[in-house]
Amino acid sequence: MEKIILVTGGGRGIGAACALLAASRGYTVCISYRTDAAAAAEVVAAIASAGGTALSIQADVSDEAAVESLFAQIDKRFGRLDALINNAGILSPQMRVEQMDAARINQILATNVTGSFLCAREAVRRMSTRHGGQGGSIVNISSRAAVLGSPGEYVDYAASKAALDALTIGLSKEVAAERIRVNGVRPGLIDTAIHASGGEPGRISRLRSSVPMARGGEPLEVAKAALWLLSDEASYTTGSFIEVSGGR
Questions:
Q1: Are strands 136-141 and 54-58 parallel, antiparallel or unpaired?
Q2: To pair with 68 at 20 to 30 A between CA atoms, which of 75, 78, 80, 183?
Q3: In the chain, which stretches have pLDDT less than 70?
Q4: What is the per-residue pLDDT across 14-23, written as a single tens digit (0 to 9) for each?
C-alpha cells in the first residue's frame, strides 16, 4: 500500500529535498507552505512529471486553526497519514540576545516550536493505535545550533531547535507502544536560502573552515537521513538523532 507523507515547509530547501526524495521512494507526498505558492507548485510539478502523486496546501503552522485545516484536507484527499517530516522553520536576522525583543523571540518559537508540536499532535491522532491508527513515523528537522547555541547570531533559533529536540525525546517515549517512532535530524551548515533570510547569504563560505569536512552540506544529504529514519530499516530506532553536519 502506498504510504502518505506530509512535509511541512516542503516548498524549498531541505523540505523540498525531502519531498522529492520521498516521492522517488514511492510515497504520496503532501507539502505545506506558508507564503511561497510558486515554489511549492514547482515541487508538486516535479513529482508529478516523474510519475508521482503530490499535493501542496497553504498553512502557517504557527496557527492552530491552519494546522487543523491542513490535516483535515489530507484526511479528505488521502484518508490517512503514515509519515510526517516536521521541517517548517524560520529564523530572523543575526543579532545578539541583548538586541532581541519579545516579538522576534515569540515569532521564532511560534513557528519552530508551537508549529512542530501542533503538527506532531495531529499526526499522532491519526497514526496512533490508541486512536485506531496503524502506526507511523515522525522526523523532526532540528539543527546543530541546538547543541552549539549559535552565539552572536541566532540564539533564539538555537533555543527553538533545542525545544524541538526535547519534543522528539519526550514524544518518542510517549507513543513508542502505539507503533509510532519519533526521531530527529540535526543539519549543520546546509546550502539553502535560509542564510539569506538571516542576512548573510555567504555564511557557509565564512564558516566553512570550522567544518572538519571543509564544506557545506546539501539539502539532499539531510533528506537521505530523514528518509532512512522513516524507513523500515530504522524499525528499532526512536528518540534518536542523526547529525548531518560534516563533523561540526
A1: unpaired
A2: 183
A3: 195-198
A4: 999 999 999 9
Q: What is the pLDDT of residue 244?
A: 98
Res 201: pLDDT: 79
- Is 33 in the active site? no
3-state SS class at 167: helix
Catalytic residue among 27, 33, 154, 157: 157
Q: Find the angle CA(26)-CA(4)-CA(77) to the nearest 5 degrees.
A: 125
The pLDDT value given to residue 196: 65
Kindly report the CA angle at 86 between 23 and 24, in degrees rounded to 5?
A: 10
In order of start, what are the domains of the chain with their CATH numbers? 4-244 (3.40.50.720)
Cβ within 8 Å of residue 241, ≥6 positions away: 142, 165, 168, 183, 184, 185, 186
Contact 39, 12 (CB under 8 A): yes
Contacts of 111 (CB under 8 A, 6+ apart): 60, 61, 62, 88, 89, 90
Residue with cell 542576512: 199
DSSP assignment of 38-71 equals: HHHHHHHHHHHHTT--EEEEE--TTSHHHHHHHH
Question: Is beta strand 4-7 parallel, antiparallel or unpaired with respect to 180-187?
Answer: unpaired
